[in-house]
Amino acid sequence: MHMKLKPLVTGIALALMANSAFAADTVEAQLKAQQDLIKQQAAAIEALSRQVQENQDAVEAAVEAVEADSGKSALDKLSIGGYGELHYNNLQGEGGASDKKSVDFHRFVMMFGYEFSDTIRFFSEVELEHSLSGDDKPGEVELEQAYIDWDLSSNLTSRSGLFLLPVGLLNETHEPDTFYGVERNNVEKYILPTTWWEAGTGLIGRLDNGVTLQGFVHSGLETNADAKYSIRSGRQKVAKANAEDLAVTLAVSYAGIPGLTLGGSVQYQEDVTQSQDADAGSATMLEAHVDWQYEAFRLRGLYGMWMLDGDGPKSMGADEQNGWYLEPSYMVTDKMGVFARYSTWDNQAGDSADSAKAQTDIGVNYWIHPRVVFKADYQWQDNDSDKNQNGFNLGVGYSF
Predict the structure, then answer these.
(1) Which keywords label this protein (predicted)?
(2) Are 189 and 232 in contact (CB under 8 A)?
(3) How many domains is the chain built from?
(4) What CATH number corresponds to the domain at position 180?
């Protein structure tokens, strides 16, 4: 029996050895496959890491390039501002004029700017008027400014785009904390007319003696007999504006004496009707203003006029439209100021017999912060038509 079992044991041993060798080869193959997979995944991760690093390097290079322009970060180059004003009017009509008792968030404005470099800047202003816009709503959404300033030298700047014209005291600077009275004065509302923006291009030059010169070629007004040649209604607001006839505006101001600013502007347009009215022709605007402050006392004044050519404006008495105002004020404390203003204007409105208007305002501004102001004033009107609105106005405004 012993001799018979030996071959069997030997066979079993050889079989086990063969199976063991086969199992070892299988495990080794599996391990190698796993190692190859791990190497492939590692290579993929490494490639992805390189791509991420390259993207990060590109972003950092872009940021560094922006910062290298002026030493500022990209966020520092972005500027955000705005202003707004809420009005309450309580006016009693007489002589056929209507009463006015209303509350209105008159303006909500956001301003955005960006500094591309030390010499190239962008500025914009978007306004919502009367709180709500849309079909049959009282308000409008308006783009009032969107322009590029390019400094050609230290004292010469090119401006191109949509911008406020350099006319009067309020048109370029009309934030509610910068002027007295709840409502803007009527002369700069109806004669100039504030707020007035156009699209075009021009130059701004600043001299060392305090003189600033500005000149622009830009889109023009469009008014006609149906609008009674009203200047204010002629603003096209650069909304698919008719550009048959462009306009030219020149302005000069002097601020070489501390506390004193003197300025004026002239505009010419060959055809104020944009070639739509054969009975009208050219329009010329002249304006001069003064802003003088001595300690707590301040005096502002302005005169403006339009001369419209043609039989159409002349037949309606609209060939000459003019107005002026004087506004003394006094800072009683560092937070409270009082003012008085007398204004008179005649924009004809198609009725030359009794179109002259006059208004006296007195009131107070109280700044709870240099950029936040509460206002109250009382107005008396003395219009040739005897249609007057007298009463008081309240308001609050801010800017930042």
Answers:
(1) Coiled coil, Signal
(2) yes
(3) 1
(4) 2.40.160.10
